[in-house]
Specification:
Residues about 440-450 and about 455-458 have low confidence and may be disordered. The strands form four sheets. Strands 1-4-5-13 form a four-stranded mixed sheet, sandwiched between helices. By secondary structure, it is α/β, with parallel strands linked by helices. The protein has helices at about 5-10, 20-30, 35-50, 50-65, 90-100, 120-125, 135-145, 160-170, 175-190, 210-225, 250-260, 265-280, 290-300, 305-315, 320-325, 325-330, 350-365, 400-415; strands at about 80, 105-110, 145-150, 195-200, 230-235, 245, 335-340, 345-350, 375-380, 385-390, 395-400, 415-420, 430-435. Helix 9 (about 175-190) crosses helix 10 (about 210-225) and helix 17 (about 350-365) packs antiparallel against helix 18. The protein is globular and about 70 Å long. Strand 4 (about 195-200), helix 10 (about 210-225) and strand 5 (about 230-235) form a beta-alpha-beta unit.
Length: about 450
């Protein structure tokens, strides 16, 4: 078998065999094939696409390119993945909710790049907390605590790490089969029995249209079915930031408030929805409404908060920091308000513009390796659909210097659109796609009484 023949086959728009795909990934992972041939195949895939079978085979080959985590000793486990967004700190709330019911959550997360924040960066706002765990430490914490969130180890899906680095420098990142196989190979290698995917769509997401988000969701669910995994993908809104806080320490504080029952209503509902789908796939409830009720019970009872505390302490985080977040989490040197220029209704808040402003404040990375300031960010006081008066606060800017706060205020004001009349907030979720056929109803009957898939910002 020759790499050049495989490249030519895909270049000409033909399907690759399972054997060709497996051989290419194996040889590239063990350094038999050079980067330039892998780059050529990536470009051919980018231009010609892949069938559902090819995409599933590519995903499996990438997942099996390294160690496959074995979680069978823990019974049924459910993982979650978010495709990235602005203000998306859901893992910090959803993980504790689900784990507090007795369903183990063993999650490997990533760091932020560009306008999309990363769970690991947020967690590292907590003094002492370690996210770089060995596989032995990772599994031991699942046994002892039932909840672990750590960085992906080099042993899991190494082919994905190498191919992603090539995609980043060869303009082949935006390829549906390559995106789907990258996400799902890591999830499969991490060993979960079932997976809930939170696919963000809108201005503050990588998938900016509903059609693009649905195509990605359908592809990943199909991969899951091919690999005998139960998968549910939720299409959620990311046109405005999720919740009110954007920025690492600020988002940790908001997650803590939510675990105490005092979080933003849209963010709380979003977390309960994702948790409900995880509990349903984890067979903790017989219906989605029942799963939502169960998630809500464990949040309101304080059990989720106690699980969060145990998880933080297990990974070396200081308990005092999360028990007194306003005093002990890192704080910005400058906090400045942005005021409404007129009486109006907030018609839109460009989530991408907010996210990029936080990056420019120092709260994110323009490129890999950039240092992050955990203190900076934005806290929204008004969201889409809210009526505001002249001089009323739209948000707070948390910055390192007065000059950077002033520059941020100008950019953030431009991110707001106003209307003289009432505005309907966007839905929290647009659709749901699942390997479980009863959940594939376009989001119309996913527990309307709880706002599970047609939820709107209160």
């Amino acid at each position: 078998m020759r790499a050049v023949d495989i490249i030519a086959t895909k270049r000409d728009g033909k399907e690759l065999s399972d054997e060709q795909i497996r051989w290419f990934i194996e040889k590239y992972t063990d350094d038999t094939l050079p980067d330039y041939q892998a780059a050529a195949l990536l470009m051919a895939i980018f231009l010609r696409g892949m069938s559902a079978r090819e995409t599933a085979t590519l995903t499996a080959a990438m997942a099996h390119s390294g160690q496959m985590l074995d979680l069978t000793e823990f019974g049924r486990t459910v993982d979650k993945h978010s495709s990235g967004g602005v203000g998306d700190k859901t893992t910090l709330v959803v993980g504790p909710i689900v784990a507090s019911t007795g369903l183990p959550v063993a999650k490997m997360s990533g760091r932020g790049l560009g306008f999309s924040g990363g769970t690991l960066d947020k967690l590292e706002s907590i003094a002492g907390l370690r996210v770089n765990l060995s596989l032995a430490e990772f599994l031991d914490q699942v046994r002892r605590v039932g909840l672990v969130v750590a960085s992906q180890t080099a042993e899991l899906a190494p082919a994905d790490g190498r191919l992603y680095a090539l995609r980043d420098v060869t303009a082949t990142v935006d390829s549906l089969p390559l995106i789907a196989s990258s996400i799902m190979s890591k999830k499969l290698a991490a060993g979960a029995t079932a997976i809930v995917l939170d696919v963000k769509v809108g201005a503050g997401a990588f998938m900016q249209t509903l059609d693009a988000g649905r195509a990605l969701a359908e592809t990943m669910v199909a991969i899951g079915a091919h690999m005998d995994r139960e998968v549910t993908a939720l299409l959620s809104d990311m046109n405005q930031p999720l919740g009110r806080a954007v920025g690492n320490a600020l988002e940790v504080a908001e997650a803590i408030a939510t675990l105490h029952g005092d979080g933003p209503e849209d963010f709380t509902t979003h977390c309960l929805t994702v948790a409900a789908h995880m509990l349903l796939l984890g067979n903790k409830a017989g219906s989605l409404d029942g799963a939502y009720d169960l998630a809500e019970h464990y949040l309101v009872s304080g059990a989720a908060w106690e699980k969060f505390v145990g998880f933080v302490e297990a990974q070396g985080g200081e308990r005092a920091v999360i028990e007194q977040p306003h005093e002990r989490l890192p704080h910005a040197a400058v906090i400045e308000p942005l005021l409404s220029p007129r009486a109006a209704t907030v018609a839109a808040i460009n989530a991408r513009a907010v996210g990029m402003t936080v990056v420019e404040l120092g709260g994110g990375r323009a490129k890999k390796g950039d240092m992050i300031d955990p203190t900076v960010g934005v806290v929204l006081a008004a969201k889409v659909g809210d009526a505001v008066s002249p001089g009323q606060m739209l948000l707070e800017v948390h910055a390192a210097t007065l000059a950077s706060a002033e520059a941020a205020r100008e950019r953030l004001l431009a991110a707001f659109e106003f209307s003289d009349g009432p505005v309907e907030p966007p839905p929290l979720f647009y659709d749901g796609i699942s390997t479980r056929t009863e959940l594939n109803d376009g989001g119309k009957n996913h527990g309307k009484s709880k706002g599970i898939c047609d939820a709107r910002h209160p």
